[in-house]
Amino acid sequence: MATCDFLVVQAYDGIVLARPEKDRLLDAAAIASLSDALIALVDRYPRISLILDLGAVQALSSAMLGKLVALHKAVKAAKGRMAVTGVKTSIMPLFTVTRLDKVFEFFPEAQEALLLYRRKPL
Amino acid sequence: MKPPPIVAAEPPDGGELVFARRWPSRVERKQAMLDELADVLVGRGWVSDDDREWLLLCLDEVLVNAMIHGNEGDPDLDVDVAIHAAGGRWRLTVCDRGDGFRGEELPDPDDSSSLLLEHGRGIRIMREWLDDLSYYRSGACAALTRRCAT
Question: Could you please report the per-residue DSSP string of A46-88?
Answer without folding.
Answer: TT-EEEEE-TT-SEE-HHHHHHHHHHHHHHHHTT-EEEEE---
